[in-house]
Specification:
It is a single chain. The protein is α+β, with helices and mostly antiparallel strands. It has one domain: 2,3-Dihydroxybiphenyl 1,2-Dioxygenase, domain 1 (Roll), CATH 3.10.180.10. About 25% of the residues lie in helices and about 40% in strands. The chain is built from 4 helices and 10 strands; from the N terminus they run βαβββαβαβββαββ. The chain has an 8-stranded mixed beta barrel, surrounded by 4 helices. It is globular, with a radius of gyration of 16 Å.
């Protein structure tokens, strides 16, 4: 089995994504209950050019990433009511576990495999790394959406840096504000929240 540098297998489950009402309260709660952290927080960013169920949209959201062991926790607070995979799930099920993320090397093969299983692509985007991500609607077959994440060298380095920050973390400097994904690689300005 081939492993990424952050300890998870290629094409394996590596992330749990949660929609939250208040990202600061959620970071505190996840740290308290499952010792996740430290958190890399992008606050109130515009996520543009997302293809959501056949139309291009953008959302304003805060995202936080922290590890509990080898599993990355992603917290998502959407600040507007723009149609998205996040508002869709909050509206139908409420806040909580939204998706399970799979880190893949061959995005097209994995996307094809999941589509062959009958899963519809609910959202598709290319981030600033650049790498692709797709959320698949698994309604009726699996309890959460599945996100596949194209894991190139930059994504792997980012996930590895977040994992390494968690190893031996003593709970101090729990929130590290970043403005974009690349900031994970630079020493962030630490801020207590």
């Amino acid at each position: 089995m081939t492993l990424f540098n952050f300890g998870q297998p290629v094409n394996g489950h590596c992330q749990l994504g949660f929609t939250v009402e208040d990202i600061h309260e959620a970071m505190h709660s996840f740290t308290k209950h499952v010792r996740a952290g430290p958190w890399f927080l992008m606050e109130r960013i515009q996520i543009t050019d997302v293809n959501y169920r056949g139309r291009v949209t953008q959302i304003n959201a805060s995202l936080a990433y922290g590890n509990s062991g080898h599993v990355q926790i992603e917290l998502i607070q959407q600040h507007d009511d723009a149609p998205s995979v996040f508002t869709e799930v909050v509206r139908t099920r409420g806040y909580g576990l939204h998706h399970q993320g799979i880190a893949v090397r061959d995005f097209d093969v994995e996307l094809g495999r999941l589509k062959e299983m009958g899963h519809e692509v609910a959202a598709y985007a290319v981030n600033d790394i650049p790498s692709r991500a797709a959320f698949l609607d698994t309604r009726g077959q699996f309890p959460t959406m599945i996100e596949i994440m194209e894991t190139n060298e930059t994504v792997e380095a980012m996930f590895t840096a977040i994992y390494h920050a968690s190893v031996g973390w003593d709970g101090t400097e729990s929130v590290r504000r970043i403005s974009r994904y690349y900031d994970v690689f630079r020493p962030p300005t630490l801020a207590r929240v």
